[in-house]
Amino acid sequence: MSQHRIEADYLVETPDDPERTVATIAGEQSNGTFVRVPGETPKLLERAAARVVKFEVIDRFVGRRALPTAHPTPDQEHLTRAKFTLSWPLATLGPSLPNLMATVAGNLFELRQVSGLRLLDIRLPEPFAAAYSGPRFGAAGTRHLAGVQGRPLIGTIIKPSVGFSAQDTAALVAKLCAAGIDFIKDDELQADGPNCPFNDRVAAVMREVNACADRTGKKTMYAFNLTGDVEEMKRRHEVLLRHGATCLMASINSVGLAGMIELAKFSQLPIHAHRNGWGYLSRHPLLGWSFTAWSKIWRLAGADHMHVNGLANKFSEPDDSVIESARSCFEPMFASKTCTVMPVFSSGQGVTQMPGTYAAVNTTDLIVTAGGGILAHPGGPEAGVRALREAWDAALQGVPQADYARTHPALSMAMRAAV
Amino acid sequence: MSQHRIEADYLVETPDDPERTVATIAGEQSNGTFVRVPGETPKLLERAAARVVKFEVIDRFVGRRALPTAHPTPDQEHLTRAKFTLSWPLATLGPSLPNLMATVAGNLFELRQVSGLRLLDIRLPEPFAAAYSGPRFGAAGTRHLAGVQGRPLIGTIIKPSVGFSAQDTAALVAKLCAAGIDFIKDDELQADGPNCPFNDRVAAVMREVNACADRTGKKTMYAFNLTGDVEEMKRRHEVLLRHGATCLMASINSVGLAGMIELAKFSQLPIHAHRNGWGYLSRHPLLGWSFTAWSKIWRLAGADHMHVNGLANKFSEPDDSVIESARSCFEPMFASKTCTVMPVFSSGQGVTQMPGTYAAVNTTDLIVTAGGGILAHPGGPEAGVRALREAWDAALQGVPQADYARTHPALSMAMRAAV
């Protein structure tokens, strides 16, 4: 594609003529008016208008609209679904991520001609790569800080999510570090509440993490949730550096894009991007964002780790969607800069999902977080961590898990307990 | 409600037992695990868990799920829709808007028990009012700067959205100022692209605005779109102050919450909050956010004007939804601080929608932007502005528009031209 154009792929459903609908979308997202106004010359349109560069009908059927509109909606009508690609000249907005969002994901979802619209993918020209850092740690930097090579980082989340004091949290962390865990994260509901202040939690947790590292040589990576306004995140980042922390976490839908760009500018630690709220952006298959398109914005903005849910998760997302999301984390964004990030698998994860996870992504550059899978292992947390490592050993060696479990009791117990 | 608890109202659809589903949502958004973990005592749960404080089944029916899940989904099944209210102790998160978002609108939308979930409203305890500025201008401050009393601000949007240079924009602005317009805004697609750089546009536009003000005593308010990262917004804000601008605009879904909070901290001008992207947050009636809930977050963060679409708009939103949004802008958020904002009516607006708009909101504390309604008026832009003012005069005097038009030719022409 051109070095000077932005492209976005969409899926649309419409009761109207699909080509006319797509032309309307292109108009709304460039010249932006349906009335001819003074000064809008054909030359101006040629230079500034969005172009439809691909258009393909994928389904025509009689049925019910995916999304309601203000129009009267019959129960059954002729509908068309189509995929199309819009292209914008970079010169109208420049390499700006916030303005890109308004362009590729602005008013278009509200158009009445549209009874379904989903942004599937985006492709950005090279000037965007120069304008933003992208992930500054990614898999290599994260592995270096966590001291883990050749397998995924095995991690967990502090649960219960809320109610623990800083001391309660640190006591659980001490146990998990002693169990040899690679990675621990705050829950997204825990940031800096009066019951568990951020600074107290960092001090108490890092005392345990550092003590264990001094004793064993292994420093567990802890992702502290610093979600807040820009000044709060800056202050909290300073606290993290002072205590030798090696990772931070932010709820990116809460912080937002300008906040994330600012965070990436000052952060000296990997950014663990939590996607909570993702459901309202994506849950309807004919509305909102695909993970592939959405995550590219945050990858370029500076995320190092991105949540992708997990196989056989406790949420509503099917496995094929999880796999597509995880794979998209490894797709290079630019010739000059891949912006690849580590996918984070979570939600009801245990040894049973590990062979399928490896088969799906064919790499170990990922983070797996298991809650019950570690803390509820009948042999205790150390056996829980060991079981997950053994599950990966088996997968990497191409040995069926059940066979490997015969000589590996921690894995065997985990399989029997289904944790 | 308690001074120390946060409340959120939801609409849920589920194929499961609705009370159990609601309990699951409360669990996910507080203790956050389905496996009993060490340290999770009944006392901790009592202190930290979210409580279901209201629950009401509103419909039981046989039909098809609003949202798909990973489960096999029959075409027809028993479904329940219910409204419920969750309550959280403030002490688990503190008065933090970004962390509020993760709590009231986090992972819950992804739960598999849920085949529809929409956040309807939120109520925040007083400490939130102390933690954020809220709108610092609102209607009174905006009226003072625009010099408009007793009627809505009549405005327009620069169209075509993109393609105009700074000089083209300024030439159109000169014409609009001469026509006596109160308010002009950039389009959300125009921020700081190479074809129309922000600084050039501000200089060229404000030269015309200031010249017209010197000549006529009326200074048109122009909302410059400074959407960008935090540092860009700070620099652009300085440029605005230097040229005597009286308003700024930000695409709040592009900037995000931490960026908006930062903007509100340094801004010395009213913040015109553009909601583009709202469709992906709200278009499905059983997913995402109601405007009432969503706008409260941005009102408290510092928005002064909020887009609400318009009656008989060109988008998909029905009038009752537009009216509900507009009215919510005037509902006080706290006893100590109302955080009321000016609703902005736009999209295909002209004289015909004005009586209904006034009847719906019963106030003039609003902004109406008309594109074709002003620029395509057969008598020219001055007649377009006059026609809209006359439409409001008629509405405020309780005179039917058709009667008033008999003695007001600009209004009469607008009605005949249907602009």
From TrEMBL, chains A, B:
PROSITE patterns: RUBISCO_LARGE. Residues 17-126 form the Ribulose bisphosphate carboxylase large subunit ferrodoxin-like N-terminal domain. Residues 142-415 form the Ribulose bisphosphate carboxylase large subunit C-terminal domain. Keywords: Magnesium, Metal-binding. Its cofactor is Mg(2+). It comes from the Bacteria. Transmembrane segments: none annotated. It holds the Pfam family RuBisCO_large. Belongs to the RuBisCO large chain family. This is Ribulose-bisphosphate carboxylase large subunit family protein.
